[in-house]
Amino acid sequence: GWEVRDQRIGVLATSAAALHQVGLFRQLSEHVTLIAGDVAIGHDRRMPLHVRGVDVVQDSVAEVLVTDDRLTGVRLAGGDVLELDALVVAPFFAARTDVAQQLGVGVKDLEMGGSVVGTALEADAMGLTAVPGVYVAGNASDFGATVVSAAAAGTRAGALANAQLVEEDTERAVEAWTLRMREPAAWDERYG
């Protein structure tokens, strides 16, 4: 949002999680308006907005207004025009889950402020899923993962996968040794 700092910013509420966006954009501009539409914003939530100088419009957007290929505002369902330089709409974070789901990995809803804001693959903090041998890293399981934290999660999941492979190699070696020690030649060698 840095490119719209100090400009007139409208935040289109698709859920109560838009209040978080309002706070983020309020850091960049003193001219922020929450367009609440059908999202109920109670008094307890309106008061902090008012104190921070955020206008709340309890109307829906009927039309986005553009002049010379630039956003100039929105026309509200009631007919009023709200002049804006930027309009923010919350994304819905959806991990690409097709392959993982085919393998049996579960998908979970991600909630923020009591609203579902996305989906992600189910995994523990190390990236381990309920499916043996399947690991998840980055924003496939954590929608807030930045490039750096996603890379770190990939490193962590890779280390876990390698640790489990080492354990499997050791178990196989012990099994093979145990079987070999039961053969007559091994008895003669061992006790000869």
Into which percentage range does the β-strand content fall? 15-25%
Task: Report the sheet with the most strands, covering strand number, pairing sense and barrel closure.
Answer: 4 strands, parallel
Describe the global form.
rod-shaped
> Biggest sheet: strands side by side, in what order?
3-2-1-7
Radius of gyration: 27 Å
Helix-strand makeup class: alpha/beta
Query: Mean pLDDT, rounded to whole units?
Result: 90
List how many beta strands DSSP finds: 10
Distance between the termini: 79 Å
Number of helices: 5
What is the H/E string? EHEHEEEEEEHEEHH
Q: Which residues form runs of ≥5 with pLDDT under 50?
A: none
Helical fraction: 25-40%
Task: Summarize this entry quickly.
With 192 residues, the protein is of the alpha/beta class. The chain has helices at 18-26, 43-51, 98-102, 147-181, 184-191, and strands at 9-12, 32-35, 55-57, 61-67, 70-76, 81-83, 86-89, 93-94, 107-112, 115-121. It has five helices and ten strands.
Question: How would you describe the overall organization of this protein?
Answer:
There is one protein chain. The chain is an alpha/beta fold. Helix content is 34%, strand content 24%. It has 5 helices and 10 strands; from the N terminus they run βαβαββββββαββαα. It has helices at 18-26, 43-51, 98-102, 147-181, 184-191; strands at 9-12, 32-35, 55-57, 61-67, 70-76, 81-83, 86-89, 93-94, 107-112, 115-121. The strands form 3 sheets. The chain has a 4-stranded parallel sheet with strand order 3-2-1-7, covered by helices on one side. Strands 4-5-6 form a 3-stranded antiparallel sheet, with no helix packed on it. A 3-stranded mixed sheet has the order 8-10-9, with no helix packed on it. The chain is rod-shaped. The mean pLDDT is 90.
